[in-house]
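Example record

One chain of 402 residues, shown exactly as stored in the release files.
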Amino acid sequence: MRIQRLNTSAAELHDIAQDYSRYNQKNNIFIRLFWDQEIQRLEQARQKNAEQYTKDNRPGYSRFDKAFLAGTMNFMREKIAQNIHICDQEFNAWNGEKGAKEEMDTPALTKAIKKAAKMYGACAVGIAPLDRRWVYSHWYDLQTGQSYPIQFSDEASEYMGIQEPTLLENKARIIPAGMKTAIVMLFEMDSECLKYSPTLLPYANGRFVYSEMCMTTNSLAGLIRELGYNAIPSVNCTALNIPLAIDAGLGQIGRNGKLISPYLGSRIRIAKVITDLPLDVDQPIDFGVNEFCEACRKCARKCPAGAISSDSKVRSGMDELSNDGYLRWAIDHKKCYGYWSECGTNCNICITVCSYNRGYKWTKSILNSCKESSTLVDNLLDALDDCGPDIFDSEASFWLNS
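Predicted structure tokens for this chain:
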């Protein structure tokens, strides 16, 4: 199967319900670290286990590995969690000084913005129309420990005059109705580090990538404001990443619950900048992920926590951490975080074992050779995908390999 551009949207592809409710950020597992005692206990155990594994000098948890993690956190050590997950912080401010606005050629501007985003650090860039259903219904305030609405300026008459992203006295955040576009960016995780999942090595690499994402989104927002337009830089705050990335033509969602890029597989992180800059939008793509993931199931088999479903897609989440009302393969996020607690890191195994890390042409060749789905074909896909090197080699040293 070739990469096909689709005249559709993430909402249509995932059969979103008419009564779908926007996701409240407070339910996100990383926000629950600030208020949910169950998740807090798991996080305390994760940190304790990581320390113990380092004392035991386990492979992947050596003193040097721990120091490598400390180094990746050095740039924004205490601020990175807030700038990743909480909106309008130091490195993802909703407002900044603006230059004079001038009319520009939209196609040329779109190409220039994409190139600038890559020069700032992104590996791939797409432009999505901002589907408001993907914007969080509420943002979480660390100072008060409460959630407050995110609304658009055309939703109430008293907001109509708002021309810039605004925090009201009642803590509601207002996004100007003219901010109809999201510049979505992918950031690559190191494939060699991922082979050592679930140890400190890929965990550290992921932290470093998040630092790069904060720098890139902040830089791109500064560029847009200098052109005279509004820009909201965002990593995991403000809006859902995966549906925006689908709408931006950057990939499809896999059984592992991650965005799969045709070129980078699952080993990516996503960030975006929401703006009113006039840009040409991209279209969703299809390169066979639905068919392949339905048959493969490798991430489900390899998940130590059993958190990834081996069944077909469903319309409801397993618990309050997930929204209902759209089709996807179910993920048990609490089971997932429970294993993070055991291994002392953020695991990454489902990312590491994904077949698409080899590139979509590998899976395409298998899909093209199969005229129709059958149990035999499913078993063949399962067996072929297990060929080749697996993850973590306890006898090998990442630092001594050239």
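Notes: Residues 200-226 form the longest helix (27 residues).
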